[in-house]
């Protein structure tokens, strides 16, 4: 019995000695490298989110008034928003894109609204919500991120390819804006990182102000919603204001009082109206989205 105790004591002492002498520096180095990689990827995601917001500003119905370049070679794009306030975004382009960006926008031919898209590999599809509906640019900006395992996320959800495999984030160069040019006809041509091209008109003579949020929650379906509008700019007097589209709602315009009236049916869930102001040369599109509260 004493011999057994002696052997156990020796083994225990050896175990303590080996634990004390164990070098875990390689593991710590790997952990530090992984933390640094995740931090670098999150920095990349933050930069992409800045550009995603700028892309939203340019495609949600705001009127682009000018395009110039600053001393750093970046594009300064000014626009007038729904409140007729002039704002600007500074856009840096990157011609050599190694990894296509995940988020972009595309014009939907059916309703002439821009919707968010996802690009995975060489395939671009609509970004959808929990109910599998397309997500409009107007009033909504998705957020990219990187989770603790190094996978891309959008709004906290892991992005997966067509085989259901999570997409690993890389530090390869990528950009939302690949190229920007201004055409002789006065249009802003934006090439996105996924290769798709947007063509937006540049002018300053006309704007349409709607006294409403881009997205309005409707609580009482029985009460018509009245929204005042105002046409501004040098061409305001000769501009015509019309309803270009009304989906899942009924809408009328009173041109004397400059009021848009929207009526909802009892089974209303969501819908939208697109109001236009146009003269002989330019067209302003202002989308308004409505959702049942």
TrEMBL record:
PROSITE patterns: PROKAR_LIPOPROTEIN. It holds the Pfam family DUF4988. InterPro entries: DUF4988 (IPR032149). The keyword Repeat does not apply. Residues 1-23 form the signal peptide. Residues 29-154 form the DUF4988 domain. The keyword RNA-binding does not apply. It comes from the Bacteria. Keywords: Signal. This is DUF4988 domain-containing protein. It comes from Bacteroides xylanisolvens XB1A.
């Amino acid at each position: 019995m004493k011999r057994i105790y002696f052997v156990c004591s020796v083994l225990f002492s050896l175990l303590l000695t080996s634990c004390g002498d164990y070098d875990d520096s390689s593991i710590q180095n790997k952990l530090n490298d992984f933390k640094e990689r995740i931090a670098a990827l999150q920095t990349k995601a933050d930069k992409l989110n800045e550009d995603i917001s700028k892309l939203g500003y340019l495609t949600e119905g705001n009127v682009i008034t000018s395009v110039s370049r600053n001393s750093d070679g970046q594009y300064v794009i000014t626009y007038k928003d729904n409140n007729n306030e002039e704002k600007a975004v500074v856009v840096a382009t990157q011609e050599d894109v190694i990894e296509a960006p995940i988020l972009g926008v595309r014009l939907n031919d059916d309703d002439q609204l821009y919707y968010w898209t996802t690009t995975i590999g060489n395939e671009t599809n609509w970004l959808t919500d929990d109910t599998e509906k397309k997500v409009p640019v107007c009033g909504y900006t998705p957020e990219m991120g990187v989770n603790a395992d190094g996978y891309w996320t959008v709004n906290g959800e892991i992005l997966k390819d067509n085989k259901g495999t999570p997409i690993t984030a890389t530090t390869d160069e990528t950009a939302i804006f690949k190229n920007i040019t201004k055409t002789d006809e006065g249009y802003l041509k934006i090439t996105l990182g996924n290769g798709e091209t947007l063509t937006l008109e540049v002018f300053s003579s006309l704007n349409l102000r709607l006294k409403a949020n881009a997205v309005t929650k409707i609580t009482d379906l029985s009460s018509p919603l009245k929204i005042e509008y105002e046409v501004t700019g040098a061409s305001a007097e000769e501009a015509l204001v019309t309803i270009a589209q009304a989906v899942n709602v009924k809408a009328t315009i009173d041109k004397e009082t400059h009021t848009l009236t929207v009526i909802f049916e009892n089974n209303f869930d969501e819908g939208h109206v697109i109001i236009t102001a146009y003269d002989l040369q330019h067209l302003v599109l202002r989308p308004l989205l409505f959702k049942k509260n």
